[in-house]
Each structure stands twice: as structure tokens, then as C-alpha cells.
Amino acid sequence: MLKTFRIGGIHPKENKISAGKAIQKIDIPEQVIIPLSQHIGAPCQPIVKKGDKVKVGTQIGKSVGYVSANIHSPVSGTVQKIDTALDSSGYKRDAVFIKTEGDEWEDTIDRSNNIKREFNLSSEEILEKISKAGIVGMGGATFPTHVKLTPPPGTKAEVLIINGVECEPYLTSDHALMLEKTEEILVGTTIVMKALKVDKAIIGIENNKKDAISRFRELIKSYPNISVEELKVQYPQGGEKQLIDSLIRRQVPSGSLPISVGAVVQNVGSIYAIYEAVQKNKPLVERVVTVTGKDVKLPMNILARVGIPLSNLIEKAGGLPETTGKIVSGGPMMGKAIASVEIPVTKGTSGILIIPTLEAKRKAMRDCIRCSKCISVCPMGLNPTLLMNLTEYEVWDRAETNHITDCIECGSCSYTCPSNRPLLDYIKLGKGRVNTIIRARKN
Amino acid sequence: MENKLIVSPSPHVHSGDSIEKNMYHVLIALIPAFLIALYVFRLEALVITVCSVLFCVGFEYLIVKYIMKKKPTVLDGSAIITGVLLAFNVPSNLPIWILALGCLFAIGVVKLSFGGLGNNIFNPAIAGRIFLLISFPAQMTTWPVTAVAEATDAVSSATVLGNIKYAPEILPSLQQMFLGFEAGSLGEMSVIAILLGLIYLLWKRVITWHIPFSIFATVAIFTGIIYIFNPIPLYNPLIHIFSGGLMLGAVFMATDYVTSPMTKKGMIIYGCGIGFVTVAIRLWGAYPEGVSFAILLMNAFTPLINNYTSPKRFGEVVKNG
Questions:
Q1: Contact A338 B5 (CB under 8 A)
Q2: In this structure, what CATH number is given to the domain that contains residue A244?
């Protein structure tokens, strides 16, 4: 029996059509747009002004506040302006516009392809480097990594969990990275183990990526404290709490952080970024993005600099298909539908999914037939149909006592509902309201 | 192109499951029992079933269109299921006009007056059957001698449960009951046919094991304990599970989505309740059979059960495993 989490879960069609495709490079356009908010938390303060010359790796945004992350220039050139630009949420937010000139990198960055295995740094020095490099959770949540790797006082990490699950259908960027940067990820894991002062790490990978699993198993012999676990293909296997349950059979209590059961989870993409930051002095300025979809001509994985418009990536993958009805930044289960392809790649862009019109439209909602399938699939053990009703009738106290705030927004309920009820839409609304009420009560 | 993009919240894919798919799976699961009914009751089974379905679908169409003034929903399959199940719950020689009244009650009163599929409190087929049983007790409890029984020289047309108290010496063998050639309502007799349907429903994940198995277990344990002390047919657990409407009720009627609890815990409480009430009525009640009353009663408790049971939450019980 393959390991998996104990409550709920679904198995959507995997559709990993870009799996096994080598990571492609993409040309840098004449202008890039770097949003100053690419992470959860406070947006960056710009530290460049119009006319400033920047190189690849020059810091352009300074993190303010505890939960925030630095931003660096992904190109060399001249700062044109600091203005607002559309981002994936559909809002206009502050961004730095840079005109590209050549491709000159900061001298401190080691651009060689050699794998650098040795490091001699203290935990604090590692965290400092990660913080400086502006690394955030690259699985989609974009939580600043140095904050996550600093357990709150009184807590102690026991095990590091590396998330190589990539349970979202279609997406293959982590898979591609695991195949091509296997040893770098192992070195990165060792670095984070040192930072956290733990002596055990587990890499969890769904068993639809057998090639990645065997590649890790070959190399892992020289890393005795790291193990690789094959996991059942089940969504949301890559959810932080689900992955911890699958791998170490501990359930993070409601409202608590993974550290409360001694675990810290990092995505493989973040681990690779940490390797580059610590061993190569390279800040987070590029990432692997999957461009995919049933009618996309050349589904592929692209190593793209931050700030490149999504339209350039789509062009490289064969252009926007005639049938396009919806474009999603991220995967089909949790990604965001975007209104424009001119928004830039950011640190959290794991994929661009192009959905044909026929599949893009939702079917009409019908009455709930109380089949309770939403309850069976909810990985948090909630009652989605009840939470939807409570939100609809604004019964906030009962929504709270029925743990609406535990929802991880994985979408399994809406995916499953035979009456096409927009369960998650309502639950998100209700969760927001209940969180506001809870905050107000605390103050 | 650009301004025609659809923007909606996640998830952006759907399983493709629908009300229709679930309903048609149930209908497929009812086929084995229907074939047995055809074999045992021949043309009568066909006439009753077809009429019942036509009445149910027809009444639903007319009421939704002309009284509720909404778009008719008859093709979702639920009215067809009600029709088939009601037919399976009546004797094969029931006069058609009585059947029509049962269908009108089931669809018009029990289902649509509450707002249609998803909103009814009671299972329409169960309530329809009980309405007929109370209104036409003679017609509803006179079973014909079956064609098969004639050929095999069987002696009685009373049901197993009708005989169990007063004439236990003329009960059919368990084997006969398992295959379904004893006297009884149209589609309720064949254990094997209904079990095939159950396996299909479990395989297609239309239902889970919780309701049917908690009913079987409760009936078996309850009668089994008495049987240990007093081993006469009246208390034989196997006879109780194989006879009457228990199999049909447990697999197809108690598991009705709309009128059964939504949490696993709730389903087990509900199933145990049905098993318990069924046995109590069978052993000590005025009616020989109690499955329909048990289901109807537990239907009424469903909202309460839903209110007091919640699913097992992540992180609630286990911290370390």
C-alpha cells in the first residue's frame, strides 16, 4: 500500500501532457515588469528610481515588515518607471518597469553549472542568505521562506519534509526540476536541514513520477539522512497538512502550524532556489513554468525570468489556441483565472494552463441532493454543503463552530458535486468573513 | 480574444458527475431484481413496472409544469426510480388505478410539495407504499401464487413473514428465498439480485457500505441474540435478512441520498435505527413487515441526526499515529 493521507481526497484526471519535457530557455523581452508584491505579506519598498542602471541580481525591492521578501532585478538594463501593473489577482499593484539591455549579471553570482556540494555556514548565516535572496514558497503559496524556516520560540523542528508531490493536474514544473536538478535539490535539502538543525529529511513524490523517484534513489546513497517516499496519486497530496499526515502520520491540529507536530515543509522549487542562493549567491529571479493545455501545440516546461509577460511563454509554446476559453495561472484545482496574458511571471507562477471554451464554462447549479460526496472528499473533514448554506444565510457563528477557517481551498468539494454547486466559492467568502470577525474579537 | 476570457474562481475542472449519472446507476442496479420479477411474475411485472414509471414521470411533468410553473425535471431520473421502487413494493396483481393513486401521492405530496428532488423529507416510494398499505390493506397484502411456485408445487401464496409467526412449517427454504422464488411484492424477493445491485452501487461509488451494512448487522445481531435462546424460525436472523422488503429497503430505499444522513456516523446511527425498528415491528407489531415504517421513521430523524453528527475532522483525534 502506498502512503497517503487519511481523510478525503479525489483523483482528478492527471493530464500531465508536458511530463518528461526538458526545461527550455526563453528569450528576454525588451521590457520586463516586476511586481513589488510577489509573496504573501507586506509588498516591497522600491529601492531604485527611474534611470537607474541594474544588473541581473541587483536588489530593486526591500522587504518591509517581518513577513515580506526582497525582490531583485531579473534582467540588466535601465529602470523606466515605477508604476502600477495588472497582476494575476486582477488588481493593479506597484511594479518596477525595466528596459532590457544585454544580459549582465552581478559579479557575486556564480553562473557555472558545477554542482557545489560543500558549505560551511552556520544556521544563522544560511537563513541570512535565504532572506537576502528573496526566496518564497514556490508551490504557489509564496510564503517567505526565511520566516518559515525560523520556528517560533518554544518550538523545535524534528523533520524536514520536501514537497515533490505536484498533485495539481497538468503541472510538471516541479517534476522537470526534480529530473534535471536532482543533486542540487539534495544539496539544498542538506542546507535547510542545517538551518533547521534537524537530522532527518523526507522527500515525498507521487508515484506518477517514477523516473524522478528512481533518480533520487540512485543519488541518495551519499545522503544517509534523506529518504525518498513514493506516495499515492491522490489530490491534495501536496497540501502541507495532508503531506505531513501521509509521511509521518501526524495531523496538524486545527489552527496550528506544521511545526506544532515537529515538521517543516518545503517545496522542491524553493529548495532548488535555496541551493542557488546559498551555494551560488543567486537571488530568486527565475523559475520553471509549465505552459500546458489540451489544445496547446507544444506543451512544455520553461525556465523563465520573473517579469516576462505570460504571452511570451504562450507564444513559445505554439501560441494561444483558437479554442481558448480560460487561462489559468497555476493548476486547474487552485490556480487563478486571469483576465489578461500581459501579466508577468512572478515567483509563484508554477504554470499557465489554457482551457478550451467547452471545458471552461461551469454547468448550471442545481438543488443539493444531499449525496454527501463533498463531505466524503473533503481532506480537512469539513461539511462543505453545510458551510455553503451557513455562508448563504450569513450564520457566521455556526460557520465558525463548523470550522470554516480550516478550509484549505483545495476545491475537491466543487470538483465532486453532481449538482455543480459552487461550494468553494461560498466557503471562501464565508471564511473571509469569519476570519474578519475573529480578528475583530481579538482586538 | 483577449476580452472574451472567462474569469471564475477555482477549481477550473469538474469531475463530470451529475444527478443523472447517479440516478441512472441506481436504475442499472435495479435491473437484476427486475429480471427476477419478470421471470417470477411474467407479464404482470412488466405491466405494473411500466405503468408505475409512466404515472410517476407523468405526474411529475404535469405538476411541475402546470402547478409549480417551472421547467419540468423529469429526465433527471429520480421520478423513474420512484416509479420502479414503488412497483417493486406492491403485489403484482394490484389494480392499476390503486397504483396510480400511490404514484400521485408519492410524487405529488411527498416529493413535489416539499420543492422536488433534494428537498423532500421522506422517501417518495416508501411513503407511497405506506399510503397504499394503509388505504388498501386487502389489495396490498394479497399475493398471487407465482408462476414458478405453481410449477414447483408450492403450497402457499402468503409471504414468509406472513407465515413465520403462525405457520412456520410451510416456509420456503433459505435457498429459495436467496434466489427469490417465494411469494411477495414484485421486486423485493430475490436476495441475490439485490446483492448484485448493491455490489454495482458500491463499485460505482453511488452509495457507501454504511447504511445497508448497519441495517443488516443490527437485524442479524438483534434477532441472533434471541435465536440463541429460542431457536425457532421466527427468530432466525437469516430468514429475517432474506425475507420481506429488508434487502430492497436497505440497499435501494434507505440509501436514498435526499432522505438519509450525510455523515458516516449519522449513516450508521440511521441504519441501526432502521434495523432495530424493523425487527421490533416484525416480532411484536401488528404488521408482519416493518421495513417501510422503519425507513419512514428514520427519514424523519435524518435532519436531527445531521444536526448532531459531524464528519471526523482533520487533526481532531489523532496527533501521532
A1: yes
A2: 3.40.50.11540
Domain with A388 in it: 373-442
Q: What's the grid cell of residue A428?
A: 471562501
Q: Which residue has the cell 483577449?
A: B2
User: Residue A402: is its pLDDT beyond 60?
Assistant: yes
Q: Is position B282 within any domain?
A: yes
Q: What is the pLDDT of residue B146?
A: 64
The Cα A406–Cα B314 span in angstroms is: 9
In a mutational test of the A interface, the residue from B6, B8, B10 whose CB has the highest number of chain A CBs within 10 Å is B10
Residue by residue, DSSP assigns A152-199 as PTT----EEEEE----SSS--HHHHHHHHSHHHHHHHHHHHHHHHT-S
Of A370, A385, A411, the CB nearest to B11: A411
Distance of alpha carbon B11 from alpha carbon A326, whole angstroms:
12
Does A291 or A41 have the greater pLDDT score?
A291
Size of interface A-B (CB pairs under 8 A): 169
Higher pLDDT, B186 or B129: B129
Residues A237 and A377 in one domain: no
Does B8 map to a domain? no
Q: Give, in order, the Cα–Cα distances in Å from A22 to each of A80, A136, A170, A294, A347.
A: 34, 24, 16, 19, 20
CA distance A92 to chain B (A): 16
Confidence of residue B319 (pLDDT cuts 50, 70, 90): very low
Residue A162 lies in a domain: yes
Asked whether residue B316 is domain-assigned, the answer is no
What CATH number does residue B284 fall under? 1.10.3430
Total tally of structural domains belonging to chain A: 2
pLDDT digits (tens, 9 = 90+) for A339-395: 999 999 999 999 999 999 999 989 999 999 999 999 999 999 999 999 999 999 999
pTM for this model (two decimals): 0.91
Among B9, B10, B117, the residue with its CB nearest the CB of A369 is B117
Q: Which of B13, B19, B26, B267 to mutate to test the interface with A (most CBs of A within 10 A)?
A: B13
pLDDT tens digits for range B70-89? 888 888 999 999 999 999 99
Sheet holding A23-25, edge to edge: A23-25, A300-305, A286-292, A351-356, A324-329, A336-338
8 A C-beta contact, residue A13 and residue A168: no
Q: What CA–CA distance (Å, rounded) separates A279 from A191?
A: 9
Distance CA(B297)–CA(B108), nearest Å, equals 20
Q: Is A136 within a domain?
A: yes
The alpha-helical segments, DSSP class H, found in A53-172 are 123-132, 145-148
Nearest to A414 by CA among A370, A359, A379, A374: A374
For A86-140, write each residue's pLDDT tens digit. 888 888 899 999 999 999 999 999 999 899 999 999 999 999 999 999 999 998 7
- Residue A227 CA to residue A13 CA, distance in Å, equals 28
Chain A residues within an 8 Å CB radius of B21 = 418
Domain boundary among A226, A261, A280: A280
3 state DSSP class of B198: helix
Return the C-alpha cell found at A333.
484545482
Residues A267, A154: one domain?
yes
CB contact under 8 A, B1 and A320: yes
Q: Which of the listed residues A224, A248, A280 is the one where a domain comes to its end?
A: A280
The ipTM value here is 0.89
Task: Give me the pLDDT at residue B186, please.
Answer: 81
Number of domains in chain B: 1
What integer pLDDT is reported at residue B163 of this predicted model? 72
| Eight-class DSSP state of A10 | B
Place of cell 450564520: A395
